[in-house]
Structures are given as C-alpha cells and as structure tokens.
Amino acid sequence: MGVEIERKFTVKELPDNLGQYPFHIIEQGYLSVVPAIRVRREDDSFYMTYKSHKDFGKQGVFSEAGDIGKIEYNLPLDKDSYEHLVAKADGNVISKKRYIIPINSDAFDSSDDRCKKLMDSLKIELDVFEGKFEGRILAEVEFPDEETAAAYKPADWFDEDVTGDVRYSNAHMSTE
C-alpha cells in the first residue's frame, strides 16, 4: 500500500519544447468510481489500481474533498486480463499521452534546503488527452509528503490548482 500525494493543475499553455520529453501512451477504464478501481495499459505494461481517500470506509469519518493524500494499491495484470477487464469498464475508456517533464527550477523557495534536495526526483506528469477528451490537458506533480506539496510553487505555464476537485479526476471523466 502506498499513499499518493499529488497536486493537479489545469494548463495555460504547453511547454515550447514538449517534443523533447519522454512520454507514455496510457489507456484506462474504471470498474468503479468511488472507490476508484481502474485497469490501465501504460505502453506495454498492464495493472489494476485501487484508490481511495485515506479514511474511506471508516464509519463516521468523511474525508474533505480537497484532501491531498490517497491510498493507492497497484496490482500487475497480463495483457489478456487487462483486455477482459477493460471491456467491463463503466463509462468512457480514457486515452492520453503522459509526458514526463523535469520539475520547474523555481518550484521551491531558495531557502528551503529540504525541498531543494528533492528537485531531481520530482517530475511534472503532463497528460494530453485524446479521443473523447481531446483538448483537455492536466498537469500533476507527486510529492513524498504533504509538507513538500504545500511548499511547491507551480510552473509558470500552469493555470488553476484543481487539486481535490473531483471534476478533474480521471475517474469522474469516465462518467462524463
């Protein structure tokens, strides 16, 4: 089990040099939206993911909509299992190209040594959607902890911080 801590942003404009960055071709379908249970093909890898808010399912406990941390489990699949399960997906199957871009050089306050040491390990994942969602573009940054996430200064080409806004989740997109 892991805890995913990420911030998500809409994008004003694509980076000028987008073609120089590595990318993955992703297709994913959702078997459930809450909690999110999805199957994904990423290039030639296949897996199933379970995602939920940290306190999902605990009696009398409700997570805030903007809660930044989520529990995430990934289980490997083979191609046949993926194809069998994605055919059972509810709603839209999502296709996107995910670019892996180095974190912006001004991501943290220059006096924050702890965060500065993380610069090489942090990446921007830029999702450029295809098919039904062509034209939609979102950027995500995953962090090792909530303190680092809170200290992050978004790249100039980001627009609105939509972290925790369900309308920008891939699970929600599958129901549009």
What key phrases describe this protein's structure?
176 residues, 8-stranded antiparallel beta barrel, 12% helix, single chain
3D architecture notes:
The chain has helices at residues 79-86, 113-116, 146-151, 170-173, and strands at 2-11, 23-32, 36-42, 45-53, 69-77, 90-102, 123-130, 137-142, 158-161. It has an eight-stranded antiparallel β-barrel with strand order 1-5-4-3-2-6-7-8. It has 176 residues and is mainly beta. 12% of the residues lie in helices and 43% in strands.
The portion of residues assigned to helices is: 10-25%
Which residue ranges are poorly predicted, with pLDDT under 50 across at least 5 consecutive positions?
57-66
Structural class by helix and strand composition: mainly beta
Mean pLDDT: 90
Q: What is the CA–CA distance across the termini? A: 29 Å
* Order of adjacent strands in the largest pleated sheet: 1-5-4-3-2-6-7-8
Rg result: 17 Å
